[in-house]
Write a structure and sequence with these properties.
The protein is an alpha/beta fold. It has 4 helices and 28 strands. The protein has 2 domains: about 140 residues, UDP N-Acetylglucosamine Acyltransferase, domain 1 (3 Solenoid); about 70 residues, Udp N-acetylglucosamine O-acyltransferase, Domain 2 (Up-down Bundle).
């Protein structure tokens, strides 16, 4: 049977796997489903149509699955789906979806949401994503795999953050960030590529060098971005990270692409990051 502390409140109808641990003063709603190995440390509140995958750990004072902070929300039966092996730290808030965004908010697997992070309604967060302390996502944001958002960063609604991107601390992100991109600033601008992050994750020297060259070409000052994307696909096609960026830029989006404040400098190869 689940290990439920005597001070915890578990509503009838909640589904708890046999080895779930529910710590002191937690509150679990009637439509919540907790899979094998889920651990709630203490004072965790989970409500709504929320499912949490195996071995996810949730720390004190997290608020998970309560109705979204959206004035258009009318009580529709939207959902929150959280994957496996996630760590959700103190004071994290995650909201379910709405009718205007597909009815579901999703968190992938192996993510780390540090103290005070916020995931708003209808966000789609991939695997191995890190939200550092007090990083916040507005509604309908898409975060692809292995992206890292620095502390106190904020992402505008409908923005996409590409895979392996790095968002600097205290950055305000209003535009889509390309995969492997590094962005910084009060109103964030592209500041290079996440070279250190790529090295840590085992990308080959050839892929990194190819991406450096493609980045220099894509964000030069000559011609339109659309024209440069087409030419980059021809020049650098077959290099995995470059193909990811080309596909990302070509995808439909309501937001513009985040670009450098000035053309990238060949001296540093487009920049790097410690992501």
């Amino acid at each position: 049977m689940p290990q439920i502390h005597p001070t915890a409140i578990v509503a009838p109808g909640a589904q708890l796997a046999d080895d779930v641990i529910v710590g002191p003063y937690c509150v679990i709603g009637e439509q919540v489903a907790l899979a094998d190995g889920v651990s709630l440390k203490s004072h965790v509140v989970i409500d709504g149509r929320t499912t949490i995958g195996p071995r996810t750990r949730i720390f004190p004072f997290a608020s998970i699955g309560h109705e979204p902070q959206d004035l258009k929300y009318q009580g529709e039966p939207s959902m929150l789906d959280i994957g496996c092996d996630n760590t959700i730290r103190e004071h994290v808030t995650i909201n379910p979806g709405t009718a205007g965004g597909g009815m579901v908010t999703r968190i992938g697997d192996h993510c780390l949401l540090m103290v005070g992070a916020h995931v708003a309604h209808d966000c789609q967060v991939g695997d191995h994503v890190i939200l550092v302390n007090n990083a916040t996502l507005s509604g309908h944001v898409v975060i692809e795999d292995y992206a890292i958002l620095g502390g106190l960063s904020a992402v505008h609604q409908f923005v996409r953050i590409g895979r392996h991107a790095m968002i600097g601390g205290m950055s305000g992100v209003e535009r889509d960030v390309i995969p492997y991109g590094l962005v910084l600033g009060d109103r964030a601008r592209l500041n290079g590529i996440n070279i250190v992050g790529m090295q840590r994750r085992g990308f080959s020297r050839e892929d990194i060098q190819g991406l450096r060259s493609a980045y220099q070409f894509l964000f030069s000052s000559d011609g339109t971005l659309s024209d440069r994307v087409t030419e980059a696909a021809e020049r650098f096609g077959g290099i995995g990270p470059v193909d990811d960026i080309v596909a990302f830029i070509r995808a439909d989006s309501s937001r513009a692409i985040c670009q450098p404040a000035a053309a990238p400098s060949p001296a540093n190869g487009g920049g790097s990051a410690r992501g």
